[in-house]
Amino acid sequence: EEDTVTVGADLFKIEPGEGGAPAATEAPKEESAPKPKEEEPKPEAKAETPKPEPPKETKAAPAPEPKKEEKKPAPAPAPPAAGAKPAAGSRGETRIKMSRMRLRIAERLKESQNAAASLTTFNEIDMTELMALRSANKDDILKKTGIKLGFMSAFAKASCLALQEIKAANASIEGDEIVYRDYVDLSVAVATPKGLVTPVVRNAESMEMLQIEQEIANLGKKARDGKLTLEDMAGGSFTISNGGVFGSLYGTPIINLPQSAVLGMHAIKEKPYVVNGKIEIRPIMVVALTYDHRLLDGREAVTFLVRIKEYIEQPGKMLLTLPQ
Predict the structure, then answer these.
(1) Cα separation of 219 and 141, whole Å?
(2) CA–CA dist 106, 273 (Å, integer)
(3) Which residue in 98, 99, 110, 200 has its CB near the most CB atoms, within 10 A?
(4) Partners of 191 in the β-ladder
(5) pTM of the shown model
(6) Phi/psi at 200 (nearest 5 deg)?
(7) Neighbour tally for 295: CB within 10 Å
(8) Whether the bond into 258 is cis, omega within 30 of 0
(9) 227-266 tens-digit pLDDT
(10) What does the pLDDT look like over 134-193, one tens digit per residue?
(11) Is 324 in contact with 297 (CB distance < 8 Å)?
(12) What does the alpha-carbon distance between residue 171 and residue 257 come to, in Å, rounded to a whole number?
């Protein structure tokens, strides 16, 4: 108080001190304080956001169900295809599980291809004499015995006679041994709705043609009626297959293991044939013999088929042959 102040002189000097510091420190404290408060609701928001996600997953779950319903009607168009014509460009498919019989047949046939050294030889047979014999006697035989005389019995009888000469064709391989048989258990291939079966005519070598024909007819009926037993199909030492009833001209039948050979008959067709130096139209059947080359050589297989040809072309020879 009562000091003289000179004009232009400094009245006071302001120096940085405690008065300004607290203001600066307090300001950041106020700014930092709200930051954690703003961050705290964020995790709560994250916790809330997953809540709508579960309903999305539940909505996606039922999506496959309509797909299953769409697959079910897919096979439905298959049955109408049998009666009605499919639409143009249709590419429908039907899946059916294989029957036990079909699976077993497939297994046996593939086993035969894998195990046997299969080879097929062919020959032509003039059926003129046998057809004449049948035509002359079939009506009489049918009236007296009720047996329908066909060609199968003649081929069966001829096979039995040829097998007595070529014994290897009636044999089988078991391990490292060859089993030769004095009897002929003849397997006859029969087509049924369920598949191919081969019932057996036992001791066919001791039967006459009419007896063989009757037994083949009985077994064929049992096969078509589904009444064959395991005993009817067990065994068999040689097989005859007649694909000719379906119109087959040529074929290579598959060996029915453990047998060593199978004879294939085919359709009879009229062809130009040389007889005594002249060309004539004759009913010709092509026959095939598929054999296991492990057991039969070519000479034996060809000789067997030539014997069949001789017996069929001259049926009288079958009545004049001595048992061996």
Answers:
(1) 20
(2) 39
(3) 200
(4) 196
(5) 0.69
(6) -115, 130
(7) 19
(8) yes
(9) 888 889 888 999 999 988 888 888 999 999 999 999 999 9
(10) 999 999 999 999 999 999 999 999 999 999 999 999 999 999 999 999 999 999 988 887
(11) no
(12) 11
> How far is residue 208's CA from residue 210's CA, in Å, rounded to a whole number?
6
SS3 state at 42: helix
| Rg of the chain in Å (alpha carbons) | 47
- E-assigned strand segments in the chain: 118-126, 172-174, 177-179, 186-188, 190-192, 195-197, 200-201, 238-242, 261-265, 268-275, 278-292
Compute CA 189 distance to the chain's CA centroid, rounded to the nearest angstrom.
18
Residues 6+ apart with CB under 8 A from 21: none
- Could you tell me the two tokens for 89? 């460009």
What would the two tokens of residue 206 be?
Answer: 């001791």
b/e map 276-293, b = 16+ CB within 10 Å:
eeeeeebebbbbbbbbbe
Q: Do the beta carbons of residue 218 and residue 166 sit within 8 Å?
A: no
Contact 240, 156 (CB under 8 A): yes
Alpha helices in 50-95 (DSSP H): 53-60, 64-71, 78-83
